[in-house]
Amino acid sequence: MKANRQAAVVGVGSTSYVKRGQSSPATTQELGAKAILAALDDAGLAVDDLDGFVYFATGLDTGWFAEALGVPTIRFSASAGTGGNASASSVALAATVVEAGVAEVVVSVMATQQLPARRFGSAFAYRPPTPEGDFENLFGLLAPGHAFALIAQRYMHEFGITREHLYQVVRTHRDYGLTRPKSLFDSSITHEEYFSARMIADPLCLYDFTLESDGAVAVITTTADRAKDLPNPPVYVLGSATAGDGRWGRGINWLGMDDDLFTTAGARLSANELYAKSGLSPSDINVALLYDHFSPAVLLQLEDYGFCGRGEAGDFVADGNTTIEGRLPVNTHGGHLGEAYVVGMTHVAEGIEQIRGTAINQVSGAEVALVTGGPSILPVGAILFGSSAP
Amino acid sequence: MSENGRDAVYAPVMPALGIERSPHSEPFWEAARQRRLMVPRCVHCGAYSLPPKGFCPSCRRQDQRFVELSGRATLYTYTVVRHAVTPALAERVPYVLAIVKLSDAGDLKMLSNIVDCELKDIRMDQQLQVVFQDQADGVTVPRFRPVL
């Protein structure tokens, strides 16, 4: 096969998003298949063209997709990771596979269903005991939100960040969600609503947590040559990282990170890799889609990716920099806090739409978009999309 | 409401979770049973580490020895968990999940709970002392209370 081809992202598709559990009796695979068909249709391609699959979570099965959709030839199948940290990486891997000549039309797909027994918010509580896990579970570290509450408390203490700042993050997301037909919210959020919400794990209240929803999103990557004959303007991968500082370790699963890392998103090294490999810098980025499972994660990533200094992210958001008129619009699709939760894949979709120029909350003249994977464990994934080939 | 008053904090109890003992973690739990706080320390470079994994992350060797600590610590960060993630915890919230720094182990971080106090007594960076609490399943859990 011919290697060193240029890849391009050419298709995006999704299911509708519904509150957790409401997609039943459809299966997770079925949601994934619907998103794959929608993405192929958007790309102007057919199932017969599809020859590669990339996932970033367990539970999706290439064999099932091949049987159900009648995919004639599979040339590549792999998972880029095991969770939201690798959402952006799933497209980066697809591009790598295409550019290496291993496969030609690769889908990156995420489907999620939070049925009562598989609710992510209590995920840690149902893990079987392990010698390391005993040092977490036994003390009641039972959910990702608990870990982020611990990180946020220290971050806020050290840098003078307050719940007012977190409210500004949440409100910005909810405002973006207002124009999104698929958003699970139909209103923004007032100061009073936020401050009267029940606390889940101090300093985080209900609205600092992601929505819990069911849905699927798929993205199609192929060669730039082939993209010339397809309907959408091609979106290029300008750089990617699936990286991390080793001292982050299991991140939110152990929380033993050194002090200088503890009050971060664990993404600094990934950011450095991304900028070094792409030759771009934070000031080149027109829109950022930052994984927002918890509101403080947005602040921590603004700092890690170099959009503001340490401890400055609260004011950066409060000053309006992340709104559509601001210096760096962030999560213009509403994100997990204001639209729906598909484990980071709505962020990937929005990054692509922003570069195409077709986003609902379009950033005027957007040429470079950053999409990040979820701050959680190693590795930390991120990708830069652009309108011009690198 | 708790046995200690309205704003007192509970110790979370994870029924039926049990402990998955390994040769590396067993000395920690056995020490706790004897009401001693012991953590692994590398015999070569002196680095402390938790949870016990059998390797020294500083010099990569496997010779670690458990050393006894005074149980003094400071509060690095905490969260008041108010929402019961599992039904078993419904009667055990609020509980305080904390990361403490063990004072005589080079400020090694350890996940634990703050107990034996009211919520209003909890302050960032405050001094703590280990306490040992016995669970019904025979496991003794090291937790911390503020030194007021």
Element string of chain A (H = helix, E = strand) = EEHEHEHEHHHHEEEHEHHEHHHHEE
Sheet-strand content of chain B, in percent, reads 35-45%
SSE series of chain B: HEEEEEEE
The total domain count of chain B is 1
Given the C-alpha coordinates, what overall shape of chain B results? globular
The general outline of chain A is globular
Number of domains of chain A: 2
Count, helices of chain A? 14
Largest sheet of chain B: 5 strands, antiparallel
Named at the architecture level, the CATH assignment of the largest domain in chain A is: 3-Layer(aba) Sandwich
Poorly predicted tracts of residues of chain B: 1-6
Would you tell me the overall average pLDDT of chain A? 95
User: How would you classify the quaternary structure?
Assistant: heterodimer
Describe it.
The complex is a heterodimer of chains A (390) and B (148). With 390 residues, chain A is of the alpha/beta class. Chain A has two domains: 126 residues, 3-Layer(aba) Sandwich (Peroxisomal Thiolase, Chain A, domain 1), CATH 3.40.47; 244 residues, Peroxisomal Thiolase, Chain A, domain 1 (3-Layer(aba) Sandwich). Chain A has 14 helices and twelve strands. In chain A, strands 1, 2, 3, 4, 5 and 8 form a six-stranded mixed beta sheet that branches. Chain A has a four-stranded mixed beta sheet with strand order 9-12-11-10, with helices on both faces. Chain A has a two-stranded antiparallel ribbon with strand order 6-7. Chain A is globular. Chain B is mainly β and 148 residues long. Chain B has one domain. Chain B contains one helix and seven strands. A five-stranded antiparallel beta sheet of chain B has the order 5-4-3-6-7. Chain B has a two-stranded antiparallel ribbon with strand order 1-2. Chain B is globular. Chain B starts with 25 loop residues before the first helix and ends with a strand. The N terminus of chain B is likely disordered. At the A-B interface, helix 4, helix 5 and strand 6 of A face strand 3, strand 4 and strand 5 of B.
